[in-house]
Hints:
Blueprint: H1 3-10, E1 16-20, H2 25-36, E2 40-45, H3 48-52, E3 69-72, E4 91-94, H4 108-125, E5 129-133, H5 145-160, E6 163-169, H6 173-185, E7 188-191, E8 197-198, H7 203-215, E9 220-223, E10 229-230, H8 231-242, E11 248-251, H9 253-266, H10 268-280, H11 295-302
Parallel strand pairs: 1-2, 1-4, 2-3, 4-5, 5-6, 6-9, 7-11
Antiparallel strand pairs: 8-10
Helix pairs in contact: 2-7, 4-5, 6-8, 6-11, 8-11, 9-10
Amino acid sequence: MSEVSDAAATRGKPQRVLVAGSTGYLGKFVTLEFKRRGYWVRALTRSVERLEEAGPFTAPGVPRDAIDDVYVGEATKPETLEGLLDGGIDVVFSSIGISRQRDGLSFEQVDYQANRNLIDLCVRHGVRKFVYVSMLGAEQIAHLAITEAHERIVRDLEASGLEYAIVRPSGYFSDMGVMLDMAKRGRIYLVGDGTNRFSPIHGQDLGAVCVDAAEGSEKVVEAGGPETLTQREVAGIAFDVAGKPIKVTVIPLWLAYGLARFIGKLNKQFGDLAEFIVTAGEVDGVGPPRGKTTLRSYFEELA
């Protein structure tokens, strides 16, 4: 055992962690943060190559030699998970969910069933704690398929007998990166009037919050960045960093919902995602300021 792992054990931290969703924007940061704090880390991934390569919007690569173990499997397929928790795992962290996948799977299959499969494994193997990433303000969008899937997992965890923590971020900087891309092209499209308020957080800051949640006793951890902004304010920062004049086109909510329904007729997964994006454009989502990185500094890094 390394000196840093000895130190972690002395402080009462669990030593062995499984990170599910390790190839995603948040999962990459969480994997490296657990390792930085001295944990023995196993990453669950469908692709070692995707784990190792840097992701979009500043998501870091996770070199194979930077962590202790890589397990190749698919959480949606329980038959591929035999041996996933071998060797004793104290904490399972999961940020598994549909984001930009194009594999045709539904929120029910990924956001719910994949995480449900992990919960069942944890119960059978005596895992101590499960840390799960849901969303802030779920009660405002409870009718959406993505929200229903996430909140079913929350209820399952509450009934599982496992110790757990639910992390609820108010939004990701990676989603804001799309605004900068539009600004560089000269025009930003907003859903609704752009006055809803939210406090997105950088993946590295949120990764630290997630590891804090694994170490702490809070069952629900809400998290936002250091700033509360409207969509229009985000657009202004993006244009300023891109060095472009402000040009904003507003898509009325009635039209945006119509487009989402039309997309849903062609592809249910994309339609559900579109409905989530449209609905998020009309509700507020402000979390406690746990992050330190400002959106401007993030845009400057991207630019």
